[in-house]
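Reader question, answered in our methods column.
A reader sent in the components of a multi-part assembly and asked whether the whole thing could be modeled at once rather than chain by chain. We filled in our standard form and ran it. Here is what they sent:
COMPLEX SIZE: two components
ENTRIES:
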Amino acid sequence: MAQAYRTPSKVRLLSRPSRLVMWGGVALGMAFFVVFGIAPAVANIAISLTDYSGLAGASTSFTGLDNYTTLFTTQWPGFIGSLGDSLYFVIGVTVIQNAIALALAHRLQGTGRTASLLRILVFLPIVLGVTVVGIVWLLIFDPQSGPAQAILGHVGIHSAFFGSGSWAMPLTIMAQVWQNLGFTMIVFLGGLKAIPPEIFEAAAIDGVNGWQRFRRVTWPLMAPVVSVNVTFAVIGSLTTYNMIYILTDGQFGTNTLGIFAFNTAFGNTADLGLGASMSVILLLLAIIVALPLVAFLQHRERRLLA
Amino acid sequence: MQLSRAPRRSRRRRAVAGIAAVITLGAVALAGCGGSSGGGGGGGNADSGTLKIITWVNPPAVAALTAINKEFEQKYPKIKVQLQTAVNVATGYANLLQTSVNSSSADIVTTVDQLQPLPLHPTRKSETPTQFWSTNDVFADLSGQPWAKNLNDAAVKAETYNGKLVGLLSGVYQELVFYNKADFTKYGVTPPKTWDEFITLMNTLKSKGVANPLWLGLGSGASVYVTRFLAEPFMNSLWAPKASGETLAQALEKGDLKWNSPEMIQVLQREQQLAKYLEPSYTGAAWQDMPNAFAQDKAPMLLDGSWDLTSVQKANPSMDVGSFALPGSNDPSLNQPVANQDLTFEVLNKAPDKALAMKWMAFFASPAIYKQYVDMTGISPIMKSGGPYSSFSSKVLGPLFGQGFNPGDVLPALSADQGFWDTATQWPLLQESVMAGSKTPQQAVAMYQSDWKTG
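And here is the structure of the entire assembly that came back:
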């Protein structure tokens, strides 16, 4: 009986050679992940406890928590400011990106040619890549010859834009949002498509208007998708450095932790130990922000879907 | 039964063998990558192969190197030269340089940090990466190369450590003010010799309707120009004379002079005053556009390095350009241009093909090729014999061609072991805050002094 019970569990969907190929592929993938993902991350933590410079032939000493002490004291005053810049950037990107993407997804969920074309246009910046998007924004907001200044000049606005302490961060947020809007919109579109049309039909019979339909039907049912997009936006913007590197190099109030860590590690100072300690803090910050955020969003999902 | 099992075993063996082959090939490929990028050969074949040179996007130098590389390939058809560039010397190239040196993945690297003078107490953190590599046998000794005998004394001194010549300095460039002669004639003004004359000149230009008397692009990550175009000449004019028996850099390193001295306050006050005459939004104006802006007569004066003169000439061949040193002092004898070392070529000791690199260096240093480089880039030559040189910049600079002070004697190393505001990245940003009016000169010098660690 026991034998008869156990037999079905041994039914294999794949032949043994196929399974070997499958597990071989998995092993190869895991090996790459360990070598290029896990090992550098662990090494980064180790480097953060040293004065490693990355310079060929240089000796390296264990410095304990010196790098962390340096960051949290006035010896490295830019660090506290960079936490503030990071917070500004993360909140700005997350709120604006999700709000605009949700609105666009709502408007562009049709099957017509115009909607399809507009969806492609919104998605295009992701295909272009960070460097191209960054250069496009720099050209648009060139204070001497860019079209933005030409237009804003008519209403008396003159600014250095990406060289201005008041404009640089909002513009950097907008560039980041523009770059990633397409992906967020696609995820929202997927969520909208997953809502059964019968629910909307029932709501229409009950006589609810457009806003009520969105608030009472669409928004609660989109809760899992909102959770995904908010989490992606928060973690993505927290670790961003490439867009900022191209646009401002961390100057003019855009010195987020990501770009600050990069410049400390690879800029003129070449202080990889200190830069590594910043990236460890960035990792901890991402965990500290992400875990409660995910818990909150899951709680919200349950509440809205109840 | 046997007949049916044998093929299954065979298939299994083939599958296992296939997986093993894939993993082995992957490992071999990775090892191959490591081997080629890890370098460490230090030998190589001088007759054929690919030579890799890295530098940053400095249009005249890149154009000259591209032309020279083509001639090199024509002379040695079995050799290919790969010139890799990074966009910005301050950030992008610093990264490329560091990774290339660490992995020995280039044959010849170019640097712009000066080797000499070294910091008072050279340590791993007080030296620039170039200085560290130079003093730690990363670069090949070029002393025995036949062409080295033709270098002038200053070029040998600049690139020698412990009796070893570790780099081929390509030349010297000046940083100063360029002016449009036609504009000066039109407005009836002459080049100033003192600070007061300079301010009067700019006020005169403004009164005659010139909105932007002086152009300086700091956008796209060029804050370093505050250090090089403004701070160093002002420090040299106003402060260096106070350092008796030693250079200003040494006096600051030893603590004999303090950052919060009246002279440094005056340096920052000069910068703040000068900012009023720059183009609007100068912190966002791309540094790459400076030559074009000047060539298009957006301003009658340009604060720049002589390396950009070829771009000015290209943009406006008929433009008649003059030059003068930024006059920080009211004593004309104290106002000199910055004479900075231009890019230096170094051969990595662990270069993938060192022999090929040495061959290229000899080709570059040959009189005809070197003259071509000097004329195309506009730098001042460092060879004892050669020439005559006929670059645009030699005409624009006139008697100032090749003249000036060494900024290494004025500004000490702003290294990683200094406090936050005295690191190379942050030091000019604080001055930008002063120029913008968000910090006072007194506040800034106090911050410099409080973060400064003396030897």
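What stands out: The first strand of chain B starts at residue 49 and ends at 56. Residues 1-7, 19-41 of chain B have pLDDT under 50 and may be disordered.
Send us your own complexes using the same form.
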